[in-house]
Specification:
It is a single chain. Helices cover 22% and strands 24% of the residues. By secondary structure, the protein is of the alpha+beta class. It folds into 4 domains: 69 residues, no CATH class; 301 residues, TIM Barrel, CATH 3.20.20; 126 residues, Jelly Rolls; 109 residues, Galactose-binding domain-like (Jelly Rolls, Sandwich). The strands form 8 sheets. Strands 4-5-6-7-8-9-10-11 form an 8-stranded parallel barrel, surrounded by 5 helices. A 6-stranded antiparallel beta sheet has the order 16-27-17-23-20-21, with no helix packed on it. A hairpin with a 2-residue loop joins strand 30 and strand 31. It is globular. It starts with 6 loop residues before the first helix and ends in a 14-residue tail after the last strand.
Length: 684
């Protein structure tokens, strides 16, 4: 049997098995056995099991269809990434998807989540991918597994661990670079054996395993790498599932096509009008077999500082019906989007220079078929009706969580991040001194903030221009801990004036807003190149002798500080606490709220500036209501408890304190999301 994409691949793999059958056999019997295994049972040798009592998933290249247990099979699947919902919510989300008629689940595996530091692995909690897949099987899904190792997915660095660039500064990811393939090999050695029992040839329900991800869109076009990854994947899959690729339908599809691996494509509602041409492009690299759209987009991703992306539900349903009319299999990306909790949201970069760097919002609602909290939408009902025309709809009763408003919560300013106390509580180890600023990767820091400090020389211009080359991504500029301006990669602002007499210590507090997840292969973070002051003669004076302090802002560190602060009952000096604009640096605000009934809710941070929010020691993610369009952060009911719950805001820029200062700054917990700005969430 074989999991490869065409008849040639199946016969080659079955030839290797033929030797095992030669004991006491005759040539005619061997030939008959080969034909039976490689053609007669599967049509091309894809995914045939030697054990007839184990389900068989294969391809019939004559009938251009999948075969499941020898019968024609077509899947309608939905994408749901386990790392975008809390584990206690997995079953509910999956059951809601199954109720819509889906017969398959599509999910990525995120390398960086499971391997956060070199040699460190995480398989617990939200990283328990095996538990997630086993629940999916229990909920009657076939599974399409997409282990990457690069996944894009609007996740930080496209799911590649940041420490690759710490360990190998010149690494060329997604190529045949010996360092890269060595690390992928180590990763697969950890991941794949955990999944073996889930492959359909071993009695599980994983029917397909992806090799790489939209590689045709990557500039390398390195087939030595792709062939190596194919063989490395098959080493663990062992012909017990179908290996496949996904590529954007264009002239570069050949760069993503791998010999003997089944090819599929992806497209959304904006390209359905040219569906015949898309299928023609796919047939150019995959002449036979079923037609598959592995990513049909019922919504789209959204960046900060842009309008929230929305797609009309009826248009989506009509487009889905068109795809299914070709007897194609299809995966809806995303069916349930969820949330980029913590610092996991990625970013995009327009290589033609028209847009540049843009960071993804925290919500991955995606205007998907289900909403961010896993609820049924109008789009869900429309899509379900279409699916019901080709697949049987199961009889499933849904029990959605309540969505509750917990009202206003006052917050007390409790800690200045740049103070001695703030550094002691939240910084990472001993500050590092160096001639040039150190990057996040050089400090093996995933995300958060880096503080760069140096002594200002005397300068002969007043004002002079401070210039920071290649900033990634955003810097609040202080002199003697007094804010003098902000630099931004997104806004392409890399310089600001400094005046004499402002002070002697220059401080650049740099925020990682998310590594680019698509196309760019290396989006390291921090300050690169030179930091200079303009001279009277038009030249530039480089600044050196930097001290770099890391603030990873990991949830357990913030929670440990909050608990100590609660016990000590300390507060900031009134002069600092009264600030509306945070001119002396970020401030941590703390508060608590009572819950009598647990439900989903939304943290409304309207009026605040930019920062990070933590509930009960869990990092909800970045907020930036000043930029929008996302105003609220989703708070899953699974995080809350009856009784007192804690809230911490690390605010970078401004709080929503009233000008008269009569009340403490506050947030509120709403029952309705606001992802389209202040006006509220649009109907899907």
């Amino acid at each position: 049997m074989s999991v490869n994409g065409g008849p040639r691949g199946g016969k080659l793999r079955c030839t290797r098995k033929r030797t095992l059958a030669m004991i006491g056999g005759v040539l005619i019997l061997i030939i008959a056995l080969t034909v039976g295994l490689c053609v007669g049972l599967s049509g091309d040798g894809n995914g045939v099991s030697e054990q007839q009592d184990v389900p068989v998933f294969s391809i019939d290249h004559q009938a251009n269809t999948f075969l499941l247990n020898g019968q024609p099979f077509r899947y309608v699947s939905g994408s749901f990434h386990y790392f975008r919902a809390l584990p206690d919510a997995w079953r509910n989300r999956l059951r809601t998807m199954r109720a819509a008629g889906l017969n398959a689940l599509d999910t990525y595996v995120e390398w960086s989540l499971h391997n956060p530091h070199d040699g460190v692995y995480n398989w617990e909690g939200i990283a328990d991918v095996v538990k997630f897949l086993e629940i999916a099987q229990e909920e009657d899904f076939y599974i399409i597994l997409r282990p990457g190792p690069y996944i894009c997915a609007e996740r930080d660095n496209g799911g590649l661990p940041h420490w690759l660039f710490t360990k190998y500064p010149d690494i060329k990811v997604r190529t045949n670079d010996p360092n890269y393939i060595a690390e992928v090999g180590k990763w697969y050695e950890q991941l794949m054996p955990r999944l073996k029992h889930l492959f359909i040839g071993n009695g599980g329900k994983i029917i397909m395993v992806q090799v790489e991800n939209e590689y045709g869109a990557f500039n390398a076009c390195d087939h030595d790498y792709l062939n190596w990854l194919r063989d490395e994947t098959d080493k663990y899959v062992e012909n017990k599932a179908l290996m496949f690729t996904v590529d954007i339908p264009n002239e570069r599809m050949h760069c993503g096509k791998i010999d003997n691996v089944f090819a599929t494509t992806d497209f959304g509602i904006d390209r359905v009008y040219e569906i015949d041409n898309i299928w023609k492009l796919l047939r150019g690299v995959q002449p036979t077999g079923p037609l598959v759209n592995s990513e049909f987009y019922p919504g789209w991703l959204t960046h900060w500082q842009e309008t929230n992306q929305r797609r009309d539900g009826q248009v989506v349903a009509n487009a889905l019906k068109t795809i299914l009319s070709y007897n194609a299999s299809v995966n809806l990306y995303m069916f349930f989007g969820g949330t980029n909790f913590g610092f996991t949201a990625g970013a995009n970069y327009d290589l033609d220079g028209s847009v540049g760097y843009t960071a993804d919002i925290t919500s991955y609602d995606y205007d998907a078929v289900m909403d961010e909290a896993g609820g049924v939408t109008q789009k869900y009902e429309l899509v379900k009706q279409v699916i019901g025309e080709v697949l049987e709809l199961p009889d499933i009763n849904l029990n959605p969580a309540k969505r509750l408003a917990y009202g206003k919560v006052e917050l007390t300013p409790a800690l200045e991040l740049l103070s001695a106390e703030g550094r002691a509580a939240l910084s990472k180890g001993t500050p590092v001194t160096s001639d040039k600023p150190k990057s996040f990767e050089e400090l093996d820091q995933y995300s958060g903030l880096l503080l760069y400090e140096t002594t200002l020389p005397s300068f002969d211009l007043d004002p002079t221009l401070l210039q920071v080359d290649d900033l990634r991504d955003r810097a609040h500029v202080f002199v003697d801990q007094q804010l003098v301006g902000t630099l931004s990669r997104e806004a392409r602002i890399y310089a600001l004036p400094l005046s004499k007499g402002w002070g002697s210590t220059l401080q650049l507090l740099v925020e990682n807003q998310g590594r680019v997840n698509y196309d760019r292969a290396n989006d390291t973070k921090g300050i690169f190149g030179q930091v200079t002051l303009q001279l009277h003669n038009g030249g530039a004076l480089p600044l050196d002798n930097w001290t770099t302090t890391g603030y990873p802002l990991e949830a357990y560190t913030v929670e440990a500080w909050r608990q100590r602060q609660t016990e000590m009952n300390t507060a900031l000096a009134p002069s600092i606490a009264q600030q509306r604009l945070l001119r002396s640096g970020p401030i941590l605000y703390t508060g608590s709220f009572q819950v009598t009934e647990v439900g989903d809710t939304y943290l409304n941070v309207a009026g605040w500036g930019k920062g990070v929010a933590y509930v009960n020691g869990f990092n909800l993610g970045r907020y930036w209501p000043l930029a929008g369009p996302q105003i609220t952060l989703y708070v899953p009911n699974e995080l809350l408890k009856v009784g007192q719950n804690s809230l911490v805001l690390l605010e970078y820029q401004r709080c929503n304190k009233t000008l008269n200062g009569a009340e403490l700054p506050a947030v509120q917990f709403d029952a309705v999301a606001q992802l389209d700005g202040q006006s509220g969430e649009a109907q899907k």
